[in-house]
Design a protein that fits this description.
The protein contains eleven helices and 14 strands. The protein is an alpha/beta fold. The chain has a single domain, classed as Aldolase class I (TIM Barrel), CATH 3.20.20.70. An eight-stranded parallel β-barrel has the order 3-4-5-10-11-12-13-14, surrounded by four helices. A two-stranded antiparallel sheet has the order 1-2. A two-stranded parallel sheet has the order 6-9. The chain is globular, with a radius of gyration of 19 Å. It starts with 7 loop residues before the first strand and ends with a helix. The structure holds flavin mononucleotide. The site of flavin mononucleotide has 22 residues, from strand 4 and helix 9.
């Protein structure tokens, strides 16, 4: 029998299968960060996932980094409640991913057209998509220690609101070069206070945020996503093995529900390095296919496997895997465009189901 369809415990939840839907930004909220009713349809269509991880959601307005991304401030709770109710009505489970973009943003997306905030005033190389097309990243403003404490508190409040909206848990987005990884990485963090310098100091922000999230939700409803050596968004660390070893050793004390590791082109085998050090469920994502996922579970290298684009294009991915059915191809042109096209119109095997 396929091991992908065995149940697995992740924190407080028992997942009916080991196929997790990856967090994916879809840029279909309104300009105030409110998810649309289409989001409820989109996620409910994918409720057969063992667990859905939502798109990245900003915990506070200064954390927004892309047009039409959603938030979880007070004004957003009602709309998210419709999403979680729709997923639960279809028998699914959903975590919210909290994503503070830090310097990977643009004044045109931020309150008062303020510059983005970051551990240090270091401009990332590259451009970002704004309402007015592609624009250069700007030099961010370095956070004060008091402001850092405020952002930790923002994550706590966001966690409280996510739970109020009916989410089964929360994931900290500490991957892909956003604020938590900006603190963690020596290239973007040149602070000389307790948040910069050593691996311990650079890990401090992530550990404080996770502790705040766990204080609200219980540690068994909190996960973290990391992507060592991915390099996305101009993130670089001088000694990533040492940094991630330190971080994951510290995570043990928090007794989190899971560690979600997405690897893209890393030279080090971080799964071999990190999994033995972690004490919760270990999730692997990034470029998997069914056979690869099956092998990871069979060999005991992961507790669950995470699929992004395959879930985006196949609302009934678990059933397709079960049947060995062909997969719909993802359409990149509609990953981030408004509306139903490329969002809620990918057909299920039984297309009546998808409607
Ligand atoms: C359209 C799109 C949006 C994404 N947005 C996010 C995001 O908001 N948060 C995140 O952690 N990863 C994001 N990712 C990365 C995915 O979670 C996942 O790591 C990646 O797609 C690799 O898995 P795959 O090869 O199965 O697609 C995104 C990926 C795609 C394709």
């Amino acid at each position: 029998m396929s091991q992908l369809f065995t149940s697995v415990r992740i924190g407080r939840l028992t997942l009916p299968n080991r196929l997790v839907m990856a967090p994916m930004t879809r840029s279909r909220a309104d300009d105030a960060g409110v998810p649309s009713d289409l989001a409820a349809t989109y996620y409910a269509q994918r409720a057969s996932a063992g667990l859905i991880i939502s798109e990245g959601v900003y915990p506070v307005a200064m954390g927004k980094g892309y047009v039409r991304t959603p938030g979880i401030e007070s004004d957003h709770v009602a709309a998210w409640t419709r999403v979680t109710e729709a997923v639960h009505a279809r028998g699914g489970r959903i975590f919210m991913q909290l994503m503070h973009c830090g310097r990977i943003s643009h004044p045109s997306l931020l309150p008062g057209s303020a510059p983005p905030v970051a551990p240090s005033a270091i401009k990332p190389a590259g451009q970002t998509w704004t309402g007015a097309g592609m624009q250069e990243f700007v030099t961010p403003r370095a956070l004060t220690v008091a402001e850092i404490a405020g952002i930790v508190e923002d994550y706590r409040q966001a966690t409280r609101r996510a739970l109020a909206a009916g989410f089964d848990g929360v994931e900290l987005h500490a991957a892909s070069g956003y604020l938590p990884e900006q603190f963690l990485s020596s290239g973007s963090n040149q602070r000389d206070d307790e948040y910069g310098g050593s691996a311990a100091n650079r890990s401090r922000f992530i550990l404080e945020v996770l502790a705040a999230m766990a204080a609200e939700a219980g540690s068994d409803r909190v996960g973290i996503k990391i992507s060592p050596e991915m390099g996305f968004n101009d993130i670089v660390d001088a000694a990533p093995e040492e940094t991630y070893t330190y971080l994951v050793d510290q995570l043990r004390n928090l007794k989190l529900a899971y560690l979600h590791v997405a690897l893209f082109g890393a030279k080090t085998d971080y799964h071999a390095l990190l999994r033995p050090r972690f004490n919760g469920a270990y999730l692997i994502g990034g470029g998997l296919d069914q056979a690869g996922a099956e092998a990871l579970i069979t060999d005991g290298r992961a507790d669950a496997t995470v699929f992004g684009t395959a879930f985006l294009a196949n609302p009934d991915l678990p059933e397709r895997f079960r049947q060995g059915a062909p997969l719909n191809a993802p359409d990149k042109a509609t990953f981030y465009t408004p509306g139903e096209q490329g969002y809620t119109d990918y057909p299920a095997l039984n297309t009546a189901e998808a409607a």
